[in-house]
Amino acid sequence: MEQFYLSLLLLFVSFISLSLFFLFYKHRIPFTAPNLPPGTIGYPMIGETLEFLSTGWKGHPEKFIFDRMVKYSSKIFKTSLLGEPIVVFCGASCNKFLFCNENKYVISWWPDNVNKVFPTSLQTSSKEESKKMRKLLPQFLKPEALQRYVSVMDDIAHKHFGSFWENNTQVTVYPLCKRYTFLLACRLFMSIEDETHVAKFADPFYLLGSGIISLPIDLPGTPFNKAIKASKFIRKELLKIIRVRKVDLAEGKATPTQDILSHMLLTCNEDGQYMNELDIADKILGLLIGGHDTASVTCTFIVKYLAELPHIYDRVYQEQMEIAKTKSGGELLNWDDINKMKYSWNVACEVMRLAPPLQGAFREAINDFIFNGFSIPKGWKLYWSANSTHKSEEYFPEPEKFDPTRFEGKGPIPYTFVPFGGGPRMCPGKEYARLEILVFMHNLVKRFKWKRLIPDEKIIINPLPTPAQNLPIQLFPHNA
Ligand code: HEM
């Protein structure tokens, strides 16, 4: 019997090894070259991916970076992740180099997983697709548009808090924050308000989010396989929505400027061509992924930190109540109100410093170049890590201390606070995110104080930081 299990195990190991071999075989970029930065490329094929992911699962993603900064170099070291040779850039000057040399030495790059989840990126490339996306966004994220969104966001927040928070003594925060930011995105990107329609997407989005940055093993049951299936399901649903919108536009039931979906359907490229339906579905999918979970993580961690730090809560409450007092019954927040929320935004920034929703992002070297005396070969991937500066004593004294005053005056030195990246690839949704986070804080603190139900709840990074039990809390309404 033992022999049977041993053979089964050997068969399984061989199968996995062969799958990995074929998966990574196409990456023929050499892992060796003269004068590379110090570091190790780890085990054949999987490199150091498991160590990289497992420090995140244990809640300390910075450990992977800081251990190697101590062992090899405080600025750059080489490794291998997700089947690619990678150089990790650490610290302010390295961030500056990557952010300021887009298209000269580097271009944005996403792991192959992303291309497989977004099939339109396979037809061109994720670079081309993200260029198209950046062209489409300004119309939707320009200041005049953003100003209009404030009251819509506040209206949705009122309804959300009315339905899911009020009249409850206990709630679980993370799924509610996801629900809030996802509903906002569905409403503002596609004019969908129906909660049951929106709820249909929630689980597939969770699977998609956690499978995008995982080992690219497309076998039944793996996170990557689940992500691909989820993306197919969501794309199908999006295609239905797109087709209905086309009809509504033709019949005058929808307007060309009502949301990003109309805008995408009616915008053509330099050659006079309109985007096809699948292309639009993928763009909307990308925006929904990039645009809702990042902000919901920030809202969740705001709840966590405000529960732990009553003196910070008191100041946020004071600031938000000053604004609430100026409102007559039912009057919604406006742009001026948002601009008064300075302390609250400093708190949100400090939350993003300590728990950056994205841990970093990738670039690809488009030429051979020398950096800090080391050779970076063309085709190698580069990674900037938010934690390499956010958690560094050099830039943020007592880095583990929660201190929103770091953002007063001139704030942190350039290229050290980078939750949204920097340079031409900086997150185009930064201002949109600021609005939805501040509207959330306003609606939360004016209604409640709260207490964490699991005081030492573990944090895991998968790939976004998340409280392991989704942050259950007990609510204490102010008007009780
Ligand atoms: C707290 C919320 C958010 C955080 C922390 C965040 C962070 C980031 C980061 C770090 C990047 C990568 C930058 C790089 O490659 O160097 C990025 C890219 C991107 N973000 Fe955000 N983001 C947030 C919210 C949003 C929202 C609300 C939207 C949409 C409305 C959005 C849309 C995008 C898009 C489209 C890209 C890709 C840009 C490109 O390829 O050039 N993000 N974001």
From TrEMBL:
Q: Name the CDD domains on file.
A: CYP90-like
- GO biological process, any: sterol metabolic process
Top-level taxon: Eukaryota
The family database entries (Gene3D superfamilies) matched by this protein are listed as: Cytochrome P450 (1.10.630.10)
Q: Where in the cell is it found?
A: Membrane
InterPro entries in the cross-refs = Cyt_P450, Cyt_P450_CS, Cyt_P450_E_grp-I, Cyt_P450_sf
- GO MF entries: heme binding; iron ion binding; monooxygenase activity; oxidoreductase activity, acting on paired donors, with incorporation or reduction of molecular oxygen
Task: Write out the transmembrane intervals.
Answer: 6-25
Q: What is this protein called?
A: Cytochrome P450
